[in-house]
Design a protein that fits this description.
Structural class: mainly alpha
Bound molecules: zinc ion
Oligomer: single chain
Order of helices and strands: HHHHEEHE
Strand order of the largest sheet: 2-1-3
Number of strands: 3
Shape: rod-shaped
Distance between the termini: 19 Å
Number of helices: 5
């Protein structure tokens, strides 16, 4: 019975270790960092496409102004404007168009600078996301490895348990298993130094007397946690 209890305690510890592997927290943290980076990336990509559209609009605004300037300059150069008054107003318009183009180009340049910085942000976020993905894959692999080691150890313990439990009285094992369902899989505890090692409470003198008087094959249980108490030489009876 003590061997069975030892195996089941080990199984409970393995299950606890499996649940509380540090990789679980690491993976969760990486997943939320990755989710945050992904939404930042979406926002940055939206900013890039907005600025690209703005740049196209700025370019489209420039086109007719440049065409008009080129046409005027051509006409001034080839001398097809006969009227000096018309010519002077055309020269004036050229100056005006040049100023307008310069303003529009300044505005476009500013958009292009913003676009460049937005694209750099996208690249930076892509680098960060792929770094996080790599870390996540790595953490998941380490978690899987740790889980596999624990599962292997648990499988060994279960195999031992299967060998052991037929050697014990069937009704005792049944009682042990029944108690175990509400006691983390461990339905018995060693009585050591007058203490139940399951709930760690000291057995009172009256109960100790009853236990000491019980026959060796009689099942005694802890009054506090109701586990089967296993009596050994170290029980202090
Ligand atoms: Zn107890």
């Amino acid at each position: 019975m003590l061997d069975l209890q030892t195996i089941d305690s080990t199984l409970a510890q393995l299950e606890h270790r499996r649940r509380t592997l540090p990789q679980h927290a690491e993976i969760n943290a990486l997943k939320s960092a990755l989710a945050a980076t992904s939404s930042e990336l979406i926002a940055a990509e939206t900013a890039v496409s907005d600025l690209e559209a703005e740049q196209n609009r700025a370019e489209a605004d420039l086109e007719p102004v440049r065409d008009r300037l080129a046409r005027n300059q051509r006409r001034i150069a080839d001398g097809t404007v006969p009227d000096p008054k018309a010519l002077s107003s055309m020269v004036e318009e050229v100056a005006h168009l040049q100023r307008r183009i310069s303003d529009l180009e300044d505005a476009e340049l500013e958009i292009m600078e913003q676009l460049e910085s937005a694209m750099a942000t996208v690249q930076e976020l892509q680098r960060r996301a792929s770094g996080l993905e790599g870390e996540l894959t790595d953490a998941q692999a380490r978690r899987n490895e740790a889980v596999a080691v624990i599962d292997e150890q648990a499988a060994e313990r279960r195999a031992e348990r299967e060998q052991l439990s037929p050697l014990l009285p069937a009704d005792l094992v049944a009682l042990y298993d029944r108690i175990g369902t509400s006691h983390n899989g461990v339905g018995a505890a060693e009585l050591r130094q007058r203490r139940c090692t399951g709930c760690q409470l000291e057995i009172n003198a009256a109960d100790l007397g009853t236990i000491a008087a019980a026959a060796d094959d009689e099942v005694v249980r802890c009054e506090e946690c109701s586990r089967i108490l296993i009596r050994t030489a170290a029980s202090g009876l």
